[in-house]
Amino acid sequence: MSVQDGTRFDFIVVDGGTAGNIVACRLTESPHSRTLIEAGTGSSKGSEEIRTPGLAMDIRDSQYDWAYKITMVKRDDYERIEKPNTRGKALGGSSSLNYFSWVPGSKDTRAPVICGNDTSVTYCDDAGLYPLELKKIGAGGLIPISHAELILEMKGFRDRLAKAWKSTGQPISENFFYGEMHSLVHSVNTIYKARRSGSVLEVVDKPNITIPPEAHSKRLIIDNAGRTAKGVTVITGSGQELNLYATREGIVSQGVFETNKLLILSGIGPASELAKHNIPVVVDSRHVGQHLLDHPGVPFVFRLKDDFPMDDHGHHGPMSSPFLGMIGFPRINKYPENSPEELKAKAANCGLDSFFPYGQPRFELSFIPLIGSAFQRHFPHPNRGSYMTVMVDLVRPVFKGGEVTLNSMDSLEKPNIKLNYLNDGPDTIAIRKGIRFAYDVLKNGEGFKDIVVDEYPWDMPLHDDQAMKRTVLYRSQTSFHHCGTARLSMSIHSGVVDAGLKAHGISNLRVIDASVIPVIPDCRIQNSSLHGGREGLLS
Questions:
Q1: Per-residue pLDDT averaged across 439-468, rounded?
Q2: Going by C-beta distance under 8 Å and a sequence separation of 6 or more, which residues neighbour residue 212?
Q3: Into how many domains does the chain fold?
Q4: Mean of the per-residue pLDDT values for the chain?
Q5: Which domain covers residue 225, as residue numbers?
Q6: Does residue 313 carry a pLDDT above 60?
Q7: Where are the extended beta strands (E) located within 136-205?
């Protein structure tokens, strides 16, 4: 839907990503008009590529992907820059390109309001396969979620994995949504009836939401004298610039990378960064673009006996599946803390383990019964044989956060992103332990060890700490759970937004997306983003 230069709305949401669509849907509860400014394809609900779960890894680096270039690791002894790094460039943002899993977090590390029913989603178990108490996962939301389809061909894989997991002394439970995250569990996903459920479902067919496709934000319109946000300047697909105005409030929901780029282009950011690009200072907000967090992960691959096919069956079978049917959340103490880095970090944390100070699991282990192309970028994929990918994610890393800055004043140029993983020694050691535990489960666990043929493409140097350190550095990559770059804080001296998610130093401007999350959650970031969009306007 086209809009005219100078059009006024009560609210402007910039843009239609994971959280932004939820915000816009909340605003439709009043009779006011508003708009979504979408920086990508305008229609994702009807896209077969986006809505078919089995194609999720194939649309990486496509027209729907921002495909960012990111400095992954930057140390004195090692540095690596990678591209593409996927973020959703479609209506729905990364909820249109993510890998589906619905993981809410441990009870001690999340707000009480989401320990029970999450109203941003509705849990569905049409076949009645799971405990009735899981209905409380979510109800009343427009986004349906459900357990991954139990593909018949993969039953042997699932049964053997469960047996191996249990043989290590780790528990198995389907209900980890209201208490301790400590189990092997069948994954719940933003998929229902073989179709992706993204936040786009919140805004389609809403008469008082205007969605102009292919519109890219250029800068916020700010009354400098009163330090008040008035609207946004956008560039249309044809190159035309439009000034759009919000009479009540503007909400920036562009995600962890683009939100900070827009703020800096608008004169809200560190004075030193603004000076580099000759941008007049509106607010010297020195934490904008800082403290970039993520769950670093390390993947590895096993070749299995050729009894576990993942064939294309359209909207049923594997193509309806997120592939990730089971996820493990272990708490392990069998590997002693004996490195100087670990002992120093624990002492500095009042004697608490830095990686699970509140009892959360150290790792999330994703067991994928194929080669996951999104996680295996550094070596070729074989044309034949049965394989599995394991992703070892560190749930609560301690590395100093990265940053998002400008490459130039061109609003169409992507920002300069530095994750700077593993710049703290304990993270590397912790991931090393997670890899060793996963190997114990799969290569030594009852049942599963009998179907592991070989490692691919090379053996993991499990018994050499220094070689393992290098392996972690070389193979580490994003889990796509970025947050923290416009973090919530008591004042502008320690963050970007206040408890109401209102930008420090600017009136009529909020930030509502994953960038406001100050501490990396021990969950999938889409949970926090959807919930933040739902609750971010209450204040």
A1: 94
A2: 1, 2, 3, 35, 36, 37, 38, 42, 234, 236
A3: 2
A4: 87
A5: 1-104+192-287+401-422+478-539
A6: no
A7: 143-147, 183-186, 188-189, 191-192, 195-196
